[in-house]
Design goal:
Layout lengths: L2 H17 L9 H20 L5
Helix pairs in contact: 1-2
Length: 53
Amino acid sequence: MDQNMKAFVIGVMGALITFSAYSQTIVSTTSCITIGFLVLMFGLLVREGFIYI
């Protein structure tokens, strides 16, 4: 899998975490949105080449 596809998959996971903030009860809504945002930012760093996985 190339770098762009890895970043896309990470971004989709971050979006799913963010969108699930109001439908789950495990963590608070604010925490879930924050975690999703951090995962999205990690995907951006992978896409830009600052982090290689």
